[in-house]
């Protein structure tokens, strides 16, 4: 009889411990649920920022494309122009200031083309850097969300195991009380 009472006391203690563990797990679950919700909200906010950045990247991509097309058009026009006419016009210049003006104009055109190519390369590098930032941010946000979701799933499994332990302890307690 004493052994049965000790067994009942032990089972009651086991059940109380399991219920206390369940309560702690429920509190932890509430915190994890809140963290998961915060992560979801952060992902939504970040997604809005990413959409904005992607729009900026698309705009830069279009600007680069437009500038490349302008440069191509200019280069084709220069190539298509009869270079002998340009040379003959330069040779026909009688006034030295006219040749300086023509040379200066050619220098400005060459500098403009060089500046345009530099701008295109800079814009392309900026666009690629922004795209890399977007990709890294997406990966980071997904990792945080996945980690919290995994913690939430593990916690749910712990709660399930604790419920099973409580039910088993209650069943054993009931069986012991019948024996007594």
Notable characteristics:
180 residues, mainly alpha, 3 helices, 96% helix
**Overall average residue pLDDT:** 80
The DSSP helix count reads: 3
- Oligomeric state of the chains in view: single chain
Rg from Cα: 38 Å
The amount of helix comes to over 70%
Poorly predicted ranges (pLDDT <50, ≥5 residues)? none
Describe, in plain words, how this protein is organized in 3D.
It is built from three helices and no strands.
Brief account:
The protein is an all-alpha fold. The chain has helices at residues 2-80, 83-92, 96-179.
List the helices and strands and how they pair.
Elements (H helix, E strand, L loop, with lengths): L1 H79 L2 H10 L3 H84 L1
Helix pairs in contact: 1-3
